[in-house]
Amino acid sequence: MIPLRDNVPSRTFPFVTVGLIVVNVVIFLIEFLGLGRSGMAQVTIRFGMVPADLTAFFTGEPIPAGRAVLPLITSIFLHGGLVHLLGNMWFLWIFGDNVEDRLGHLRFLLFFVLCGVVGNLAHYLFNSGSPIPAIGASGAIAGVLGAYLISYPKARILVLIPFFFLYLTELPALVVLGFWIVLQFFNGAASVVYSQATGGVAWWAHIGGFLGGILVFMLFRPRPRVSLRVSRRATYGR
User: Fold this and answer.
1) What angle do CA 15, 20, 161 make, to 5 degrees?
2) What DSSP line would sit under 17-31, residue for residue?
3) Fewest Cβ atoms nearer than 10 Å: which of 146, 202, 213, 222?
4) Vertex 209, ends 138 and 174: CA angle to 5°?
């Protein structure tokens, strides 16, 4: 299912959501256009989250914190390809504005980064010896999805379903995002047993980010949500 838009209006302009999208796109363009493929690989190695480096740091080996710990944050703003970038930024655009609306701009920025860190740590727990860098905003955006789900489970999401032909329909957020997280759990479990068959996707970063997003969102004591009675009368705005 590919979400196209929701029917929950925002009360404020999503400055942070738009800013995060711009920052991620600009960083990717700098990598892709300015550094080339070999340069992108070097950036990924330097600023991606390498589980083996984090393990070395935790066990007291002489490895700088900037190399082992800082990538828990810097990796959130790196993407391995155009499809990876567009997929993440599209989900952020669809769901981020409403979560930002409830948290406020600064708290949403902190929330986004914390979810990304939690997602990275979840990936680390299942891959602590891996020398392969993990990059992407997927864990942070999964946290946004978790926060959206508990805020607006009855919101209507317009989705595109590719099933032999393209099928356009409207479904509750509980169905759309519930299906998404179940799929992540299924693939995460498969990745533990069949590590070579899951395409190198950090499924546990998605799961950790999603669950962490729900917890952090509740701790942040968000503003009252938009009335669904109002949102049902609203036309799709995005």
Assistant:
1) 100
2) HHHHHHHHHHHHHII
3) 222
4) 95
Q: Which of the 8 DSSP states describes residue 32? A: I
Rounded distance, CA 230 to CA 232, Å?
6
CB of 202 closer than 8 Å to CB of 134: yes
Q: Are 180 and 148 in contact (CB under 8 A)?
A: no
Amino acid making up residue 137: A
pTM across the whole model:
0.88
Written as six digits, the tokens of 26 are 């600009």
Q: Which tens digit of pLDDT belongs to each residue from 1-49?
A: 889 999 998 889 999 999 999 999 999 998 877 777 777 788 888 899 9
Give the domains, in start order, of the chain with CATH numbers: 2-233 (1.20.1540.10)
Residue 157 sits at φ, ψ, to 5 deg, of -115, 125
Other Cβ atoms less than 10 A from the Cβ of 93: the count is 17
User: Which 8-state DSSP code applies to residue 225?
Assistant: P
The torsion defined by the Cα of 174, 175, 177 and 179, in degrees rounded to 10, comes to: 140
197 touches 190 (CB < 8 A): yes
Residue (of 25, 86, 66, 76) closest to 205 by Cα position: 76
CB 166 within 8 A of CB 160: yes
Whole-angstrom distance, CA of residue 238 vs CA of residue 92:
12
